[in-house]
Design goal:
80 residues, alpha+beta, two-stranded antiparallel ribbon, 10% helix
Amino acid sequence: MTYMDNPPPRRRPGLFRGADRWVSPAQQQRDHNGQRNTCAACGHDGTATDPLVVDVTDGMRVHRSHFDDPGSGYYGLEFR
């Protein structure tokens, strides 16, 4: 097997690797403004029962529950 048979995964444009998740430059700016634990979708803080996860589409932190809610724009999307 050669390198080209199994190349490393490509990064999404505009996103970079955080400590263990992909975060966007906009989310990094929110982090610097003290909004690291604030949902980018609804503005409420993350909790133990509804933690914030990173949406791999836009790199923003949103509640895990938004991905399970059919009425949410995040429904069915991938997260980390």
